[in-house]
UniProtKB/TrEMBL annotation:
Origin superkingdom: Bacteria
Organism: Flavobacterium helocola
UniProt xrefs under Pfam families: HMA
HMA domain residues: 46-113
Name the UniProt record assigns to this protein: Heavy metal-associated domain-containing protein
Amino acid sequence: MKNLKNIGLALVIALSFASCKQENKEVAVEETKKEAISEADLAKMQTASFTIDGMTCAMGCAKTIENKLAGQEGVGQAVVDFETKIATVKFDAEKQSLESLTKTIESVAGGDSYKVTESKKM
């Protein structure tokens, strides 16, 4: 009976890790290439919000999307709130657009996990 409980616990833990797809090491490489952005530059950037469907966890899903967005050229800041399912992005409009940022979000984890249902400039 004790072994059955241990096997069940191991199965639950394994499923919880499997439900959150992890982005490969490209995100880490992109983060190291990114230059520091000053507060003045950040203040000049446009802000947009994206409602994202398909996230199942904060650390695997939301954090992976956040890192992917933050690694894009022209993105000064990206924050993904798992609870509200909203990504808020500060970006340089000369280098990024709502469409390009939407494509970035929807391409994470192979392109079949996340869908942007609404996007708007703030």
